[in-house]
Amino acid sequence: MREKQVAVAAQSGPVVQSVVRVLKFDVAIAGGSFAGLAVARGLAQALGPDIKIGVIERADLATTSAGSDSRAFAIWAGTKKILEGLGVWDAVSSDAQVVTSIEISDSNIDDAFRPSRVTYDAHTKDGSPAAYIVPATSLQAALYKSVANDSSISWIAPADVDGMLLGEYSSELTLRDGRVISAQLTIAADGRNSKLRDDAGIKTIGWAYPQTGIVARVKFEEPHGGVAIQHFLPGGPFAILPLPNNRACITWSADKDEAARMTALDDDDFLAELDRRIGGRFGAIALDGPRQSWPLDVRIARRLIAPRFALVGDAAHGVHPIAGQGVNLALRDAAAMIEVLADAGRLGIDFGNGTHLERYQRWRRFDSTMSATLYDSLNRAFAVDNMVLRAGRGAALGVLDRLPSLKDFIIAEAAGVTGDLPKLARGCPV
């Protein structure tokens, strides 16, 4: 970090000087999200003391309790390689649950028999696990710990960004406390409602769903065996994501009226409603953490870059959680950004001005747009409660279940081990 002080004189009246504290970095990252922390960690690893990074975050993650977050993520094989390359996988592995198989069903809540339409063996061609379920708190803590004591990274928190100026030679962020962050490049990792994306003049394409996302962590009486289950129910998808110690993260999308009714229930009635959707498969259940809910929408940035500015993670693409791929997309963004900036840094190229940012945009736009479209289509197709459509869906899923080569292809695509992948996602150093 390089720091200078600038004297500012009043434009009229007596001359009054105030001192503006300017902190100078090579790269400023606004938002201590999964993607933001991953970019900071990867750049510090790749370029060491030759790069100075500032991470600006509204919350002080060192003191903020993460216990209120009941979410868990499906970390697919390609993303696991990214986390291994960043040196953080070992810190989360003890909290990670291997997914042994994936079951998909399409039925009504009160159906007496709820058959699995498709069952996947959740392994890649080499026999290794295709996916793990990891608590959000474990992933956040591991990523934060990886950057907390790195001399190349300055943690600026708690801090709010009031404004941004993208100039010819630098980007400048003005903080609410009056400090100014100056950098060659600003990376916005501040979520799907990104203020900086709006300040940069980047428009989005998106819409709100008539659904609310609900998450709860539970403890089962009977072993879950590592099976991940996706029930496509009339109001939206309902997923059971297994966790260690016979726990699970329950996440589903319900229509707004049903979600409002559910969230208003006391714990006993809420668990009874959960059990209706689980179908009593794992015996008695108990809450193992707080419940959470939020409105669902999709928001895709029309561009991923602007002069001296770039988007990663949910700031670039907030998608429907139906396939649990949001954090995987975010970490692929991070891996691509790390690679293009590391290449630029080694050549002495200005981080905020060069063809490397165009390369990043081309690389990540297709993946994020196609993924958002696919998840939206799946949600719409399975949310329709119609007997004819359900019969058609059941027939299609039945055909899929009898095509092992197609199922292997789908698992490989979901696992993020195919296509034009960043080096970290291929298990290669940057």
Characterize this entry briefly.
This protein has a single domain (2-207, 296-426), classed as FAD/NAD(P)-binding domain, CATH 3.50.50. A hairpin with a 4-residue loop joins strand 11 (171-175) and strand 12 (180-188). The longest helix is centred in the last third of the chain and has 29 residues, at 355-383.
Would you kindly provide a written description of the structure presented here, covering whatever features stand out?
The protein has 430 residues and is an alpha+beta fold. The protein has one domain: 3-Layer(bba) Sandwich (FAD/NAD(P)-binding domain), CATH 3.50.50. Helix content is 33%, strand content 31%. It contains 11 helices and 21 strands. The longest helix is centred in the last third of the chain and has 29 residues, at 355-383. Mean pLDDT is 87; it is low at 6-17.
